[in-house]
Amino acid sequence: MNARRWWLPSLGVGLWLIFFAGLSCSPWRAQLVSRDGDAALHWKLGAWMLDHYTVIRVDSFSHTHPEGIVISKEWLSELLWGAAGDALGWNGLVLLAALLITTTLYLLQRQLEEEGSNALTATVLTLLAACTCSMHWLARPHLMTHLLVVVFNWQLRSFHQDRLPGRVLFVSLVPLMALWTNLHGAFPIGLVLIGLYLVGNCGRRPEQIRKMKLLAALLGACAAATLLNPNGWKLHEIILHYLQHSQFVGGVNEFLPPNFHAANTRGFELQLLVLAVILLVIRPKWERVDILLVGAWTYFALHSVRNLPVFALVATPIFTEHLRDRLPQLWQRIAADVARVNLVAEGRAWMAVAVVAVVAFQPRTEPLPDVFPVAAVRYLQAHPDAVRGRMFNPDHWGGYLLLEMPERRVFMDSRHEFYGEKLLQDYLQVARGDPGWMETLDRYQARWTLMPSGHPLNQLLALRREWRCVYADGTAVIFGRD
Amino acid sequence: MPSLSQWLWLVLFLVLLAQPWRTMMVASDGDAQMHWSVGDWMLEHKQIIHHDEFSHTRTGAPIISKEWLSELLFAVAGRAGGLFGLSALAALVIATTFALLHWRLVRDGNDLLIATALTLLAAWAACMHWMARPHVFSFLMMLLWHECVRRVDRGARPWLLTAVMALWVNLHGGFLAGFLVLGAYWLGAVRDAAKLRQLSGAALLCAGAVLLNPSGWRLPWHNLQFLHSEFLVNWLAEYASMDFQSREARGFLAWLAILFVTLAWRRPRLTSSASLVLVSWTAFALYSRRNIPLMVILTAPIIAPALSEAVGERWRALSQRLGGDKHGWPVVATLACAGVLCVAHPTELPRERWPVAAVQYIQQHPTEFNGRMFNDYVWGGYLLKALPEQRVFVDGRTDFYGEALIRNYVAMTELQTNWLATLERYDARWTLLPRRSRLNQALAELPAWRCAYTDEVAEIYRRLP
What we know:
By secondary structure, chain A is mostly helical. Chain A has helices at about 10-25, 30-35, 40-50, 75-90, 90-115, 120-135, 140-160, 165-185, 190-200, 205-225, 235-245, 245-250, 265-280, 290-305, 310-325, 330-345, 350-360, 375-380, 395-405, 415-430, 435-445, 455-460, and strands at about 390, 445-450, 465-470, 475-480. Chain A is about 65% helix and about 5% strand. Chain B is mostly helical. In chain B, about 65% of the residues lie in helices and about 5% in strands. Chain B has a four-stranded mixed beta sheet. The longest helix of chain B is centred in the N-terminal third of the chain and has 40 residues, at about 70-105. Chain B is globular, with a radius of gyration of 24 Å.
């Protein structure tokens, strides 16, 4: 028996350390907070709740929907975002996001190993899943969903494969479902996962009937647990309303179907290729529940890019199960050597060291100035009289603006379901320059605009006598009304 | 009594001739009329078109005609029956393709009902690309090509394959897809030297056949250059990935589901070539929606045997009872003719989507519209047919106009920073654009431009002299 080596990180820990250091300290950290304005939005909402010791229920950030009722889908995550942001600024958001991403990958790797895969194969397939997930690595509460998808799927698979008693499943998943409901609006994914395992276990054998009964009861209990949130059933109502209305979903990039011309779908394409190899070359006997899980989550991923990470996290354990014993002999030999070393590696302490080191030495993170109107905001702060009155801004800058310019209320941010269909349509009419755009801008009494440079609205405003360009740089243009 | 394949042909043909299909096939974009106009010019001048005659932006520029033979056929059909003629020709080609697919599945020994269900499902998946344009010939040619490649793979001589390529290269620019299928079979045969020699020889012969077109080697080179343009491939809607949230994606989703369930549940042992065709064309179909019809035509024969093996005895007995007489063509032809004669022919472009009223206004006030026009890209084909006296700025021949001109078109319609300078550089004197176009909103603000006409669909702006 080899002695445990505390200084040697296992492959899983190594994976965690590499991704944690990469995400926290490389230029990627700016990407985590700069892809859209939501990181700033959630920080601001969380900070407001921390300041007021209450869950946010009315809006105080926009001039188009002041005092509107807010149904917060992710108040608990926002508290974490607010605390991290208030404590460490943008670095805090990066740190929190990096922790969530790496822990998700670490747990996936652990799941694959526990289910019988060797450490090397588990690590490589986790890396493949990371490629798919990486398109959605942003400092936002949806990372909580990714983490909980792994936990739910791991527990459900363990139960399905008779490695976990039903009692433990109940004790772990029902409280987690209540937590998920308060962490992120995508909590119905948990119910869908339980539902798929339930359908996959339908049958007449006593064993199947026992599992069916237990999963049905679990589904009911988890559904009831979702009511444990500050807004009760109204949360479910607003999520359903949001998903059923194409004007909300169609206007958000992450709800669009994948564009296979783009480089960010390469991970998904590779995973589909792995699926093809399993189906055509290995040709294993598939369990019904696996067909359901892979089929359903492939469909959801094709429907909407935001489901790509969930597909990766759910499908990877199934792919690994079919692949692990069919890899070439050379691979198996290398994997066996790696496994011998991995068995004695006990370097989890490095994870704590890495967190402390990153908190102490992480380079300063700022949103990218070519993505957000950083210089324009500085100009407005230096010249507060340059423009007065109500602003018109793009929705994806809303979060950044309400964080950086709290003294000016935004026209809109990315909370489309909060602003409602009418306001969204009006916003799109102006932003697209559709007929009647000027009348709509007048109706909202917008006195100035802050739009990306190259946006057609700037060209339209430049042609009107009563509007003048107040500020312009390579990222943003400000027009003011005389 | 006609066979099920013949009935299938008849039903598809008549459905496509009925509304709303016959209008949809000519009204989905302006290309149906663009090809008709080009073919008409060739019929009129009794020569293949070599220089542009329709635009003011590239007047006289050399044209690599990718589909001159289809354009001639569409022009003959258009002269005979107008827009209905275009629809009838497309319906004939599409119905023949899917009836042949069905016939082939049955001939391969698949269960008749499975073959029918798969053919109908394939038709559903492919129908979002059923338009009266030369690419429908590629559906038919791909089916024939795949059959010929399979025969060559089994040892047949490649003469028929070469003949199919020689025809395809003159019908539609999609002939390059044939080489991808041949390549999959070539890779699949890499361990079999004799087969590899046979397929290599066939590939060389077919490469030679590609040169049998009016533009010679320039045609494949031109097509490859077009596909190499990332901007154009990303800009053209039909090259985009499928929008899986749209209704038209449901057929393709159903096809993918059948594919996955068949492979996971039945676990068929496919040849290397079949596996390569299946994987590569699924990838192409995900990459670009225009590959979906080709993908279903190629993959149907691959999954049909696995599904046919799964059917029970009762089902098989029912299938055998349904088998008809293969000599039923006279009955089918008579019914098809009766259908063509009985169906009300008028086929018009929907006025709520096409600038029909605006074109009438221009025809009624010819003196007001002197000088160069700036027009919507999608409407280009329609305009060069409806207003032959006016030359268009752009139409659906994206490969001919090239990346630079299309970028300028986008700069103007998207109101990019240089939009006005670009409009002036092309000396556009009037515009005909959709009412909601941003460019209309900008022109409305310019004192040198006046709105000459407006309706719910289109607006015309004219530059003051």
